[in-house]
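Work through this:
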Amino acid sequence: MAGPVSPHLVIPMMLWGETPPSHCISAIQISHDHCTLVTGSHDGQLCVWAMDPNTYKATPKCFLVGHTAPIVCLVAAKNTLEMECIVSSSENGEMCTWDLIDGQCIESVKLYQIHSHIQSYSFGGTEDASLFCIGNYPEILVIDPFTLEIIMNLTSRVHPDWMAAIHVLRPTRRQDDVVLGLTTSGVVKVWTVGAQDLNNSGEPVLEHESKQIRCLNATSMTCCLYNQRTVIIVSPKTWQIYDAGDFSLLCSMSSKQGESWVGGDFLATDRIIVWNTIGTAFVYRLPTNKLKGHVTRCVVESKDFHNKSSEEDLPFLYCVLKLSDEQKLPCPPSIRCSLVVKEDGRLVKLLLRGDANGRVSVFTIPEVTDNQLEQIQQLDFDNPPNMTSESCSSLSDSWMAIHPKPIGILSHMDSTIPVTSSLYITMQNRLVCGRADGSIVLLNGIATLKLLLLQQAITDIPDLLTLNGHTGRVTCLLYPYQLHNRYDPVQLVSGGADFTLCLWNISSGTLLQKFCVQVGEIAQLLVPPANSSPRILQCICSVAKDHSVSLISLKERKCVLLASRHLFPVTCIKWRPLDDFMMVACSDGTLYVWQMETGQLDRVVHGMSAEEILNACDESVSVVPSFQEGGLANPAVHFFRGLKHRNISAIRHAALRGLNQLQHTNASNNQDSGDLSKDRGVPLSIQGLRSNASETEFHAVFFDAEALVVQLLHEEYSMMSPNTLENHGLINQNEYQKVAALTHTASPDAQKKIADFLGKVKDKAGDMERRLKDKDKHGILAKVRESAENMQHKIQSRNDGLNAKYSERGTEDERDGASVGSSGSTRQRQVPNSLPTDWSLTMEIAQLLLSLLHGWTLDEDLDQACQSRLGLAKPKSPVCFGLISRSGHMMLMLPTWPAGESVEHFTALSHWSISSTLTTNHLLAIVALSNTLMSMNSTAFSNGKLVRQYPPRDAKRSVEDRKAEEPFTVHDVQTKQGWSLMATLHCVLLPDKVCEFQHLRHPSGLETFRKAQIEMLARRWQDRCLEIREAAQALLLAELERIGVDGRKAVVDHWATFLPTYADPFTIAGPSHSVGFNANSLTGSGTQNLSVPSQQWGNDGGSPARSAGEYEAEEDHDEEDDGEDVALRRPSRSMELKRRQATSIVLLGVIGAEFGQDIGDNKKTSETDPRKRKTVEGFGLGPNQNLARLTSKALTYLLLAPASPKLPMHTSLRRAAIDLIGRGFTVWEPHLDVSKVLLSMLELCCEGDKLIPSMSYGLPLSPAADSCRTSRHALTLIATARPAAFITAMAREVARYITLQQNAQTLNVNLANTTLARAKPEILRVIELLIDKMQADISDLLVEVTDIVLHCVDHGHLKGRSLSEVFPSLCRFSQITHCSSSRRIAVGSRNGSLALYELRGQKCQYIQAHNAEITACAFSPDGKNLASYSSTENRLSFWQQAATGVFGLGAVQTRCVKTYTTDPLPPCVRSGSTIPLRMARLQWHSGKTVAIMLSDGSETRYHL
């Protein structure tokens, strides 16, 4: 029983019902803090109990779900990080490490070894524990409890056998550890483990001693804690005390008839406790009557103890621990002895017992002194005194104490019939519940959940449809269309305990067919794979408890195959559709291979061959259609098999398939697979869960926050026109085309050629149409056209009918819209009163989720706004949330914890005190959804119903339209303000609000606020969903701001130890570089290369670009592994190290980028500046820049590293590095090669607008497009933060490119594939942005900017058009002038020189025109003269070009022909702005007269 495996942000919520789940305890363990009990059950789930340290009363807190077999072992583990963890092991080899504080599964693995006993031990007295495991294998495995990696193997050289018991200890006055092992055959083995053995993890450690003793099938072996020479060994028939020195038998005690000993432990030097299979514990005193005086030494060290025993030397039983109401249980109880340290320092020995009925009992073992024991021994009694438990707690008792009772999925119905199976049809929002009386109920899923969970008046009663057809309980349900669209969408299949299988029409509620094929209860319903034969594609697979499997054809309404020769229960079904085989695996390891078409048993396979065939089925998945001739499942093969087995039906179907293949040879090429198995995620799903098959189902509701955000945005965008999308900045296709057109070659005849070509194509098409009409004598084309039009009308009318059926609300406004549309503006004016059904459904899911997650009572004003404007409602009772962790393992809160609290207390305090991981997930969902709804229209509710809002419209609207929309506009503004306040509360104010609530109302409460985990937020820094990404970034920055300087320093100190180091200098080869160029030189010596474990940082590489509707989950989180991967995956410490390295890079990058830079350019900022005090040491501008240097090298490595299996090109980690380089560029700049970083980002942006709509587009993008968006955003941040660095680096690369271009033929270099050639549109976009926002910085580097622009813009555009038309942003500066006739550009620089660009020859000439900054320059209309003006120098110069030499055949020179001394600028002009473009400009009035135009409107003319 596991949750859905999804990398999305999934939030589970439980509906337990009035009946508690069963919990047959098989193992019990207490945590290190002695406040938490953990019990494992035979059904595979774990239950966590909160134990009162004073009364020892245990209260069930939550279920930990993930194992698929009975729990065998539980052991507590603790490390230096103070994590309270428990390690569980099951009968099938599954091992899981659970964090008891946080509730998530840290690690899980499935081993081939099955453990029967595990002991936790810390080597050398360290705090980090290791697990010593024994079981049905001849070794002792030493496993790391947090990575579940085998770190040591203890093997036997003499008489290897299965180990029955083990104990690990460190003898006094020794530096090594000793492992005692006892085999099932009674051989004691001793291993000595030293430091050298720990380092040699690959070499097995052999035993040092071994001895045969008379003890078979021992169950436990324990050394005395108070003296290590005494050992107790418990076997089913007897328990024995041995001398650990020579393993000589000291004393023993046999069990009573019909009982067996299970385990034992030492209570003191001469006291032991032993318990048996019925749960009774016996406390003995070892014989010490031969010792003289007070017992100051160990019993074993007494010489008389080894003498022949007498009757007085037998162990003395002085106490029995048993329950007063002992019941006969189907399974033996689980018992464990524990030593607890009380607050006052006292040691209390507890005996913990877990029973099969889910009851936990805690006994206090009495402390009896020697004097008291002597008095008891003198008494003559037949039965020793009995002691009952201090406390007894059970799941059922805690469940019955809850008032009101926990709600179930059908609690709103008066019926008490239990639900035995359930199914949620996502696309129809129908919840199907099969019940014990054989009836099936169909409900409206969202309406039912709102009715059960929220405090709001719902007038609409959820639709009910009852199907009656089974005479026994309904055991399984299947909606085939939800798994593949080849099935009929109105068909539902149900199986029951009455051996029948029913086919229903859920639209009309009728029973279509009842099948009674198998003679056992239907246990499971499956769907064959998509590449099966056409006949099998219309079948479903039914598995019954009579060990039979059948294929039922829903199209033919009959049984195609009945496989009923299995002797043992069916455990697995796999398919080989290309070979027409169905593989049925049974519990005894046998594999039956059936031919699906003929219905014959092909073979029976046993042992390893069966496992290999099953594994091969997973490897041979193919998408080739099964009816192609290349496959074995072709008609000839089936025809031959039909003849062989004399199967007439198979022969007939094979012949029909052969005819179909001959008639449709190309059908496979056009066939739509329609495989829905890879679902992109649905916003809501409801699953029925149960501990075992005999109990009533309880239900889990899964909210997928990412899918919900995507669906909301998808539906919002679908209502917008392309112009509206462009106006809202969601797409920028027109803008990109304008910029991209400048980089392409421009030809004056290009448009004419295109028009002529299109005309020729049109004429040719018209001629072809006339020819077809002439040849069509029978009017076939007209008939085809007519039938197509008729079909179109039918489809349109059917769609209109469906729309009318599902849009009953608001029919009056629809009529109004239709009347307005009849006047000629139907397309623009028609606005339905009620949104489409899918839209309303998605919005109601968001409403339900936010109502459950919102922190009610923390802000009363916001609560009022949520109820009145946002349509939210308070929960009826405390919500049982859940948590999905790695591999689909789940933590499910129980309604028994905390018991009896109010809804206000839960929503304000207890909700945020459960788990830090749960707090993080809930805050991410709230902030992401609030921001999404704030950016949308139609997002308000009134009285629980969606309020109509006008969708976004184009800017051109009439005055009447604007007046009609004013009330809705005001309502929309108030709604957006409400969503903004909700996001602010949970992002920034929540910790302070919760602490304030606790201080005012519950000052003595034990709940503590579990703050969001910064490492989880760092891993989602570049989440694939933009809204969740922004929410994670906002939460992380708010948390880092809240913890202050000391908190950030602690975070840096902790995570800096995991930061990988790389070499300092980057080698640059060549004028331009692409991503990953020469990245091998970045690897630092002495450190391992960073790679990305798929469990944390997702792999986006290799997947093609997809639309939002085809978006699939491919990356990013802990939940990405599926069950098969876990079964084969072996976690390692290196994976955990790399995971922490990735987290460290992102966290330190965020802290350095946001809190490590000195604000502004003034390096002498006072230390008292509060913004200066935020700077973390190591990231500032002082001498200590070690952290900044190491972090920048790690980020740059992730950017430049070549794509590899360990670090693919498009991953969230690489995107995070790109984003953080852009955010903190001012911090990283001294340690970066700016040119290489910029070129690498430009390489990712080369095809930018072909991949992404815009940076603000919220729908998920393909991995390549997401990397492009992040790189573009980082380039924008870098350019705006350091415009001089960006322009200088790009100008330098342009100069290199021009130099290489001049020698391209000699060097044989293809410049079209370089980054500078492919990224011209992106460079122009950044330059244009800088001109708009950073004019002062651009004016200082105008020559470099012009070099870059002229490199990107094709010169053909400047032949017939001016520079102001081609790139108008650059012409804002008066220092730049362009002459179209002479095709020259002049640029005045800050140092007084003029740069003259000859576009014909692609040359540039520099003239020292002035001694100060040039304010303006301008060409004369004829292009012969150039005027330049410097306001600082107060001089105006005129320049002319003239050719030297005889007849003007020499070089062209530019010389000054006249100079004027101008008047100084007025103070009003000079003080108005320091930017030259705002001071003055030159204007030619004729070929000989130029005027200086000042910003105040004055004008001064000068003549040449």
Residues 425 and 482 are 7 Å apart (CA to CA). The two ends are 92 Å apart (CA to CA). The longest strand covers residues 1452-1461. The chain has a mean pLDDT of 79.
